[in-house]
Amino acid sequence: MRLWSLDPSILDRMALVACWREGLLAQRVLTGATRGYTRHPQLERFRATPDPLDAIGHYLASVRAAATARGYVFDSTRVLRPDAASPGILVTSGQLAFELEHLRRKVVVRGPAWLPRLPLVAAASPTLVEVPGDIEPWERGVPDP
């Protein structure tokens, strides 16, 4: 499960669609509708908010807005709380940089034509607020120093 911290407008098609599907799965986990992925580290930041369903609702609404801007049709009825306010989840600049590089490596392989659309400096998802810091402790797959 990858719930990108990056602004969904910069995600390539595959990342955007996967983010939508995985966000919907995260919503199911947070409602208790599935027994899988309950301990997934990507969910920690949503669970840490006062209202995790509002947080994932805002996140999914921002992913859907980015998809709609590109002409994709993501079913808005699947988002339980599409009008939730941004919870302002904190994300570190190190995490954003890590994810941008991760996305860049994926795009090089599956769609190099998207590379020029990737910014030099990552912007956070509308659900998140960037703060200084290293890669988040919940991140998996971080190379050893």
Please tell me about this protein's structure.
The protein is mainly α. The chain has one domain (8-131). The protein contains four helices and two strands. The protein has a two-stranded parallel ribbon. The chain is globular.
What tags apply to this protein structure?
single chain, 145 residues, mainly alpha, globular
> Unreliable segments (pLDDT under 50, ≥5 consecutive)?
none
C-alpha Rg, in Å?
15 Å
Total helical elements: 4
How many angstroms does the end-to-end distance come to? 24 Å
* Side-by-side strand order of the widest sheet: 1-2
- Oligomeric form of this entry? single chain
Shape type: globular
How many strands appear in the DSSP assignment? 2
Number of domains: 1
Question: Topology of this structure?
Answer:
Elements: H1 13-31, H2 44-47, H3 52-69, E1 89-92, H4 93-110, E2 128-131
Parallel strand pairs: 1-2
Gist?
Helix content is 41%, strand content 6%. With 145 residues, it is mostly helical.
